[in-house]
Amino acid sequence: MEETAMMQSIMGLIVHSGNMKSECMEALQLAKKGQINEAKDKIKLANEALVEAHHAQTALLTQEARGEKVEVSMLLIHAQDHLMSAITFRDLAQEMIELYEQLKGE
């Protein structure tokens, strides 16, 4: 993979993972206010950002699967870290939204 294409994939991971985490944070704020449906809509947007992040990641994985060397750099590690923490944050946000929904129903 050309260096420019690799950098685009790495930056795609970072950007889309950041967008995902931001949508989840907004979802939590909405749920906290009792706006559960709006919070769930934000989680849907977070999931769309996750799909985009996965596309960027898949480009790198495909290169590796073809036997082409993927140079591991601090930037790539940073991008992967962003993705994994965003996924974890999304999972926790979903759980918290469900909890807010239950509390609201009581």
UniProtKB/TrEMBL annotation:
> What is one process in the GO biological process aspect for this record?
phosphoenolpyruvate-dependent sugar phosphotransferase system
Gene Ontology MF annotations: metal ion binding; transferase activity
Cofactor(s) of this protein: Mg(2+)
One short Pfam name that applies is: PTS_IIA
Active site residues of this protein: 78 (tele-phosphohistidine intermediate)
Tell me the residues on which Phosphohistidine occurs. 78
- Cofactor binding comment, as recorded: Binds 1 Mg(2+) ion per trimer.
Q: Which UniProt keywords apply?
A: Magnesium, Metal-binding, Phosphotransferase system, Sugar transport, Transferase, Transport
State the EC number(s): 2.7.1.-
The answer to whether UniProt assigns keyword Transferase to this entry is: yes
> Which amino acids does the record list as binding Mg(2+)?
81
User: Matching PANTHER family, A to Z?
Assistant: PTS SYSTEM N,N'-DIACETYLCHITOBIOSE-SPECIFIC EIIA COMPONENT (PTHR34382:SF7)
Mind telling me what this protein is named? Lichenan-specific phosphotransferase enzyme IIA component
Gene name, per UniProt, is licA
